[in-house]
Amino acid sequence: MDPELIRTEFPHAVRVIDNVWIPLSDGCRLAARLWLPNDAEAHPVPTLLEYIPYRKDDWTAIGDSMRHAYLAGHGYACLRVDIRGSGGSDGILEGKYLKREQDDALEVLRWIRNQSWSTGSCGMFGLSWGGYSSLQVAARRPPELKAIISVCASDDRYADDVGYVGGALLGLHAISWPSMMLAFNARPPDPGVVGDDWRAMWLRRMAETPPFIEAALLHQSRDAHWEHGSVREDYGAIACPVFAIGGWADCFRNGLFRLLGGLPGPKKGLIGPWGHQYPEEGVPGPRIGFLQESVRWWDYWLKGIDTGIMDEPTLRAWMPDPVEPRTAYERRPGRWISERAWPSPMVETQPMELSFLSNVVPNTKVVGLAAGCWCGFGVNGDFAPDQRREDALSLCSTSQPLDEPIEILGFPSVNLTLISDRPQAQVAVRLCDVDQDGSSFLVTRGILNLTHRDSHAAPCALEPGVPITVEIELNAIAHAFHPGHRVRVGLSSTYWPWAWPSPETVQLTVLAGELRLPVRITQKDDLTPPKFSTPEYAAPLSHDVTDAPSSRRAHHEDLAKGHHRLMWDHDPSRGVRRKLANGLEFGTVGSDSYSITDGRPVSAVARSKWVVHLARDGWRIRLESAGTLSADASDFRAAQTLKAFEGNHQVFSEEWIFRVPRKDG
């Protein structure tokens, strides 16, 4: 964080109440932190709610202090609530986005309405889980909720959540995220908040919280499990205004465009070059003054102040220029653009026939090891390197050098007529920008489990040897192809570890193909691009960084055996150990590995390990989780373990083993 961006003077002086108990109708209490303008009891204010499971007293405490204090300084009560079973809150966190979670949020909103400092008008906001919960609670139409800001979230859990990609199991996070959450959920509540009950709450939490991998494996197609919490099922259920925020390097960006196209009420969209972060902290840059934009949004909808925000274009987006392929960028060159509406009448579909030197997709080598991260935070290793090795292992169509620039905005797609020699198969499509020096920059990609070609809800096996025609929608993107560059499409039948491979080696024969680019016509708004303020935020909670390991990505290859191992040590934001002014010290270290052997899809194995530390004044807690995911031709096999230590004494140990039939088609 840049000290020059810290703001200390605000229109309102703010006080912080570190813990507030919110009672629920079933007897549980939710733990919350509250930021209030000093005169809020005499002059009630609207309330902004952030509702997530990531623990207000440690993991999010520093970031919360920078955002919530800033918003409170502009005349809002800000409430940061740990959802049931997380942090200091009572109960068990039994899964993601459950109805119980939403019901609790409705009770929180009613509680807010009855407080002396509240006008009764509320907004919700959050990143990732908080962005999802804001959309989901909005769909329940509580009368107190007047507007939301959803950051890096999606409208469709099956399409975009941690689980599946194009109908294929998301190998890159299928075991990593559940292993992380297993350790995170196992953290005890802070004794300084809940008192002497902390140990009983902790032991119950570890014994009763289920590992999240089970639900993902049991629901391999788009069924009621995924439909719940997917507001795409009924956009009309959301009546309040929605401000959707995304990043081109984030995994949930597709939902922003669907929300803008589907929501019937007032809406805005903003997408920059960032990863899975708030825009005032976003990497790669440029960062923007997003907290100032938030105040403009909240002032308009919660205070009735005409800030002009609703007179501005529906969508503001960063149009990136091509760059040298690297695994990290501090800043992406480009410019801000605006669209008055979305879908935009200024974006036209331009077809481009694909021409291949062969019609057979190579299948002897694994493709996807140079894919980069699915859910990137903008740190080293998150971005895909030069794609020339991947291109050499794929079936590619490359255009002639462009005479004129082409800018795209939205969802590219590829139509293919092809034949599979197996009943289960997948196809991965990469869109690349090839520079004059031959380097290949990955623009975007899409994956389709071909047994899901007609429906993600009702997969159907392929008939070997029979041609099919499919459309593969690629992830939404903005990109400027410059004159002299070439447009390349690469096809592969594997994309490990993003997509779990089909059970057998597959030969795909391509009979015809067409690329459809969403080409954007330059318009007058481009002459006066959006102007954003310099980022600023409130002073962070006082803390020390006691350890900061660097992130690392490594690919080991045994050329003789065709064996690959991709190792992924997690980014510094999770590896840093911090100590707060109240003496609480916490930190997390995680590592994943993904192994596979060329020509043997069932050799794929994903492993994950996480260690979480908590300490204060001689009180020391350590959680260790580990997970393994593999598959044969008939079943997925998963194992997870959790161990908990108080000091050097082990107080808990459990292992979960699952064997779930594969339903690739």
Structural overview:
This protein is of the alpha+beta class and about 675 residues long. Among the domains are: about 270 residues, Rossmann fold (3-Layer(aba) Sandwich); about 170 residues, Jelly Rolls. About 15% of the residues lie in helices and about 35% in strands. It is built from 14 helices and 33 strands. It has a ten-stranded mixed β-sheet, sandwiched between helices. Strands 25, 26, 27, 28, 29, 30, 31, 32 and 33 form a nine-stranded antiparallel β-sheet that branches. It has a four-stranded antiparallel β-sheet with strand order 14-23-17-20, with no helix packed on it. It is globular, with a radius of gyration of 25 Å.
Approximate strand percentage: 35-45%
Distance between the termini: 48 Å
Question: What is the residue-mean pLDDT, rounded to a whole number?
Answer: 94
**Major sheet:** 10 strands, mixed
Biggest sheet: strand arrangement: 2-3-5-4-6-7-10-11-12-13
Shape: globular
Instruction: Provide the structure class.
Output: alpha+beta
Counting DSSP H or I runs of 4 or more residues, the number of helices is: 14
CATH architecture label of one domain: 3-Layer(aba) Sandwich
Give the helix proportion (percent range): 10-25%
Query: Would you count the extended β strands for me?
Result: 33
CATH domain class of one domain? Alpha Beta
| The CATH fourth-level homologous superfamily of one domain | Alpha/Beta hydrolase fold, catalytic domain
Predict the CATH topology of one domain: Rossmann fold
Uncertain stretches of 5 or more adjacent residues? none
- Report Rg: 25 Å
